[in-house]
Amino acid sequence: MVELTDKETGNRIGEVSENDFQFLVDHLEEESETDEDYYIDRETLDYLKESGMPPALTTLLEAALGSRADMEIVFHKK
């Protein structure tokens, strides 16, 4: 499992499966090999949904983003 956290607030977003996390890795840009966060905005969320993002991951990220325009999520592999 991989734990996701809101970088700005430090609040826990939730845990995702390795497969769901791999979906993010495959579809989002990493700034470096040691990068441990991803930037998510409305446009990115729409792109991920159009690319077949798993429903549970979609629900989790939409809830985490809420009414904000964007956010950064930090991941920690367990």
Which residue ranges are poorly predicted, with pLDDT under 50 across at least 5 consecutive positions?
none
Number of helices: 3
So what's the overall shape? globular
Number of strands: 4
End-to-end distance: 6 Å
Describe it:
- This protein has helices spanning 18-27, 42-50, 55-65, and strands spanning 2-6, 12-16, 37-41, 70-77.
- It has 78 residues and is of the alpha+beta class.
- It has one domain.
- β1 and β2 form a beta hairpin.
- The model has no long low-confidence stretch (mean pLDDT 93).
Primary descriptors:
alpha+beta; 3 helices; 78 residues; 38% helix; 4-stranded antiparallel β-sheet
Q: Topology of this structure?
A:
Elements: E1 2-6, E2 12-16, H1 18-27, E3 37-41, H2 42-50, H3 55-65, E4 70-77
Brief summary of the model shown:
The chain is an alpha+beta fold and 78 residues long. The protein is 38% helix and 29% strand.
